[in-house]
Amino acid sequence: MSVFEQGNSSATGARQYHAPALEKGLDILEALAEADGPMTLSAVSKNLSRSMNELFRMFQVLIDRGYLAPALDGTGYELSTKLLTIARSSHVLRQFVNHALPHMRSLAESTELACHVSAAADDQLVVIASVDAPAAVNFSVRPGFRSHMTSSAAGKVLFGLETMDMRDRLSPILKRNIGDQKWSDFYESAEEARRNGFSIAQSEILPGVTDISGPVFDELGIKGVLTVPFMHSGLGLQISQVSKLVAEKCAEISRELGAKGRVTVDRLSLRPTAMSQPLLKLVR
User: Fold this and answer.
1) Which fold would CATH assign to domain 20-87?
2) Which of 53, 151, 153, 249 has the smallest number of Cβ neighbours within 10 A?
3) pLDDT value of position 224
């Protein structure tokens, strides 16, 4: 009989195995998850009825591994988004990519422009899949490329269309390494993306490129962002035409991923900096 079989053979249901260090770490995470705001080590120890010396090393490891992050106002620590990132990884992301790729290939062929999808990883966006344009010359972003969430149109869409609870958790993490003015500009742009359901903005990474980014939803909410870096379409398409095609692909992928409600695409006359009404909506 294996140790796993032994562990499941208790007639009384009592726990037969204990991992004290792991349990301390889980207790810390759960205490912070249930808290109304940031907590210091002292507050956590009082909450758990454990001494600070008993929790200090585990607390520090959780900080070093990125599970806890200092609050922006310096009042203690709070959960980072790392647990969410782990929960959304592996087979879940593979499923996302498998559904997205056929639509991305179709988009690249119909526009002669490259495209990629990004997902969140703490305060960054990571490109998880890309498709090159069939044109001889094109600009594309490779899988694995990382950028700070505040530095791209995709980041504005992802943050803007997250739940308010998730935005509250992300905000202090995103603010840490940028100035007040950049945060204010980003937040305003994210609010615009939330209203429009889309973002069309000049790339902060490559001059001369306009990023056209739309949200992809699953049954839980926003899953990732589909982006076309627009320079010049070999077919002579305008930004407004490419934006409509991106929105259509976002809606198709979202429906395949089980997005709740009805994802609709509105017909618009788009401008790179503003829109008169939402391009992509999730109607519940």
Assistant:
1) Arc Repressor Mutant, subunit A (1.10.10)
2) 53
3) 94
Q: What backbone torsions phi and psi does residue 13 show, to the nearest 5 degrees?
A: 85, 0
Q: Do 20-87 and 90-267 show the same overall fold?
A: no
CA distance 94 to 99: 9
Give the chain's largest Cα–Cα span.
72
Is 206 in contact with 139 (CB distance < 8 Å)?
Answer: yes
Pick the CATH number of 90-267 from 3.20.20.70, 1.10.645.10, 3.30.980.10, 3.30.450.40: 3.30.450.40
Residue spans of the chain under pLDDT 70: 1-15, 84-90, 137-138, 233-234, 261-284
One DSSP character per residue, the chain reads --HHHHHT--SS-------HHHHHHHHHHHHHHHSSS-B-HHHHHHHHT--HHHHHHHHHHHHHTTSEEE-TTSS-EEE-SHHHHHHTSTHHHHHHHHHHHHHHHHHHHHHT--EEEEEEETTEEEEEEEE--SSSS-----TT-EEEGGGSHHHHHHHHTS-HHHHHHHHHHHHTTS-HHHHHHHHHHHHHHHHHT-EEEE-SSSTT-EEEEEEEEETTEEEEEEEEEES--TT---HHHHHHHHHHHHHHHHHHTT-SSEEEE------SS--SS-SEEEE-
**pLDDT tens across 45-80, in order?**
999 999 999 999 999 999 999 999 888 778 899 888
Q: What is the pLDDT of residue 156?
A: 95
Q: Which one, of 121, 123, 118, 117, lies nearest residue 150 by Cα? A: 123
